[in-house]
Amino acid sequence: MPVSLPTSAGTRETLDLGYPVLNLQKLEDPKVSIHQCAQKYGSQAIRSIFQKLQERSSLPSFEEINLSDNFIGDEGAKFLKEGLSGNTKLKRLLLPRSQVRSAGFQAIGGLIGSLPSLEMLVLSGNIADAEDVCDEFGKGLSMNKSLKSLCLAACRLGDQGVTSLCDGPLKTHSSLSHLSLNYNRLEDAACASIVKMLAVNKTLEYLELCGNSIGPAGAESLVKGLIANKGKLRRLGLGQNSIRLRGAKALCAHFMSSQGQHLEFLDLRHNCVTYPGVVEIRQMLGKPLDDDEHNKGWMLNFGERQLMLNAF
Q1: Which of 101, 99, 106, 111 is nearest to 69 (CA)?
Q2: Is 263 helix (H, G, I), strand (E, B) or coil?
Q3: Residues near 291 by Cβ (< 8 Å), separated by ≥ 6?
Q4: Where does the chain show beta strands of DSSP type E?
């Protein structure tokens, strides 16, 4: 179904809307930059897509929509909600770095609550505040029963925003197995709500908390959450925080305990553990720094389980 769409440069481009994948992150030419990609399709292109489908009396049949690095903004998010609400085909919606802000998060929240087949939502790199995720977005997430992967990295949610999600929809979501909260300016205060969520959540298998400011107390609190979780969580990313030696020891001790045997992957890199701290922890793990090739590097293998640890 070829249609002509407007671009932000004032030109028009032919696009086929009959395919199950709509990909507007176009970088076919090696000379094309991400910035040029971002400027090409804006909110009016999104509006035009659904107008052209309506003119042909056709419903959107996309299984995946990739608008990564396209500056569609809040207006584009609103057009997505209007054009896709109730759609039964869409499984993956990728919107990282698309300049979605407060009103856009609310629109996407209203949308995901109406999509019965949506399995993946990526909103990383869009700025939201606590009120945005607490209100319409949180309500939409609560209504959704199909989502398996939610990426909210670098959204500046802060402790309050994550607390709103953990105290609300994340506690009881029936299908979500992967959650990324990387680079969201989280500190120890956020861990209290994450612990409560882990204690009751029955589906989450992979939690990403890398690139935040979680300290030793937060790491020790997370251990309590992992124990209460009873082995449902299989992968935990805590790289690039500030848990230091104290927090790393607590998590490594849990990893090696009988209660932590279900944890298949634990990333503790770049947490200011220091070289003496790494030496101490590796002795505790039975993986001393020596001439054995199996004990070199920051990846420690325990059968099929992996623990990542370095000094910096």
Answers
A1: 99
A2: coil
A3: none
A4: 2-6, 12-16, 21-23, 64-66, 92-94, 120-122, 149-151, 178-180, 206-208, 235-237, 265-267, 299-302, 305-308
Q: Measured on CA atoms in the order 75, 81, 84, 88, is the torsion positive or negative?
A: positive
Alpha carbon distance 127, 73 (integer Å): 11
pTM: 0.93
pLDDT in tens, 84-97: 999 999 999 999 99
3-state secondary structure of 65: strand
For residue 157, which phi and psi values (nearest 5 degrees)?
-70, -35
23 CA to centre of own chain: 20
Give pLDDT, residue 140.
Answer: 95
142-194, pLDDT tens digit by residue? 999 999 999 999 999 999 999 999 999 999 999 999 999 999 999 999 999 99
Q: Are the CB atoms for 177 and 147 separated by under 8 Å?
A: no
Ramachandran assignment for 93, one of left (phi > 0), alpha (psi -120 to 50 degrees), beta (any other): beta
Query: Under a CB-based contact definition with an 8 Å cutoff, are residues 229 and 260 in contact?
Result: no
Residue with tokens 């009103």: 103
CA separation for the pair 163, 34 (Å, rounded): 33
Distance CA 267, CA 89 (A): 35
Q: What is the rounded radius of gyration, in angstroms, for the C-alpha atoms of the chain?
A: 22
In the sheet that 305-308 helps form, which strands lie side by side, from edge to edge? Answer: 21-23, 64-66, 92-94, 120-122, 149-151, 178-180, 206-208, 235-237, 265-267, 305-308, 299-302
